[in-house]
Task: structure prediction
Amino acid sequence: MLCVRALCTFSSLGAPSSSRTLTNAFRTTTATNSVARTYATHFAKASKDEPKATSLDVDNNVFKTYKPVSPGIRHLRRPINNHIYEGRPVRLLTACLRKHGGRNSHGRITVRFRGGGHRRRVRLIDFMRTEPGEYDVIRIEYDPGRSAHIALIKARDANAEGKAKWKYILATEGMRPGDVVQSYRMGMPETTGILRARTVRPGNVLPIRFIPTGTVIHCVALSPTGKALLVRSAGSFAQVVHHDESGRYSHVRLQSGEIRQVLQDCCATIGRVSNLNWKGRKIGKAGRNRWLGWRPRVRGVAMNAKDHPHGGGRGKSKSNKHPVSVWGWATKGKRTRKPGPKGPKNSNKMVIRERPRGKEKRAGGS
Result:
C-alpha cells in the first residue's frame, strides 16, 4: 500500500504519463494476486474428492496465518472461527474479575508466573441445566476465561425473565445459531422408541442411564444433584462404554484412556466440546502470553540457591542433582500422586482402569 501511495503522489506532482500507466498496472496486479497482498492467509481447503474427516478428527486446514510484517506475527497461527459473535457479552450473565496475581489472602504467591493481563469479565456458565423446555441458540461467543466457545441460549417460555430466559452454556462442536437444545435433567418424556431417540442430540442434557453406549458426551457430572465437572475444555470428549445390569453405575471412558464408574442418575451433555483446533494454535510472541495473564516462567538453574534446588553455583549446572521441582518433588516420571493405588485404601475406587502410563502409553494402549 505504501508503494501505491508513493506512485499516486508522484503522478499528482506532474509525473509523466508513464508513471500513471505503471500505477494502473500495479493496481491490476494487486487485484489479480489479492491473496499474496493480504496480511492474513487462510490455508487451502481440501478438495471435494478427498474423504471427509470424522467429527473426532482435527482438521489441519482451518488455521489462519499472517504475512510477517512484524516478528510477532511471523509464526502466529489461529483457528478460523467465522461464526463467532464479535460484539460484547450479555452483561446480566457476567461478573467482574478481581485479579490477585497468584496470591492468597495472606499475600503469598500460591500460583507462580501469574499476573497482569487484559481486563476481562467472567462469563457465568450454566453447568446445572435444571430448567426443562426448549432453548434456541442465539449466537456463539468467545470466552476469555476458557478454551471452549460458549453459546447464548434463550428460553421459549414467554413467562421466563432474567437469568431464567437467557443462559450461557458450553457450545458443542458444530452448534450454530438457530439450533434448539433441551435439558432432560428433571425427567425424560414418557414416549419411547423413535421419539426418545430424538432426545440424544448434540447440546441436550440427559441422565447417563438414557444415553446409548458408544455415544460421545461432555460436561459429565459426578453427583446426581451436582454440576458438570469433567470434560469441559476445548475439543475434549468422553464416551459411554457400558451400563451395569444392576442399574446403579455406568462406565465412562475419558479422553486420557481412564475408565471410571459414574452413577447412572448423573447427567451429561451429548456431543463434543467446541473449538477442537484450539490446541493447534501458536501464540507467536511472548507479549501475547502477557495479555493472557502469564508472566515469564523462570528456569530453576537461573535462580539463586535459596530459591530453587537447581539454583546457585557457577555456570549452567544443577550439581548432579536429580531433577526436582521448586518444592523438592522428583520429576521426570516419578509418581507423586497420593490418592492412587499406592495411597490410602479406596481413595479412588470409582476408577476401573487407570489411564495408560509409561510403556503402555508409548505402545498406544488405551
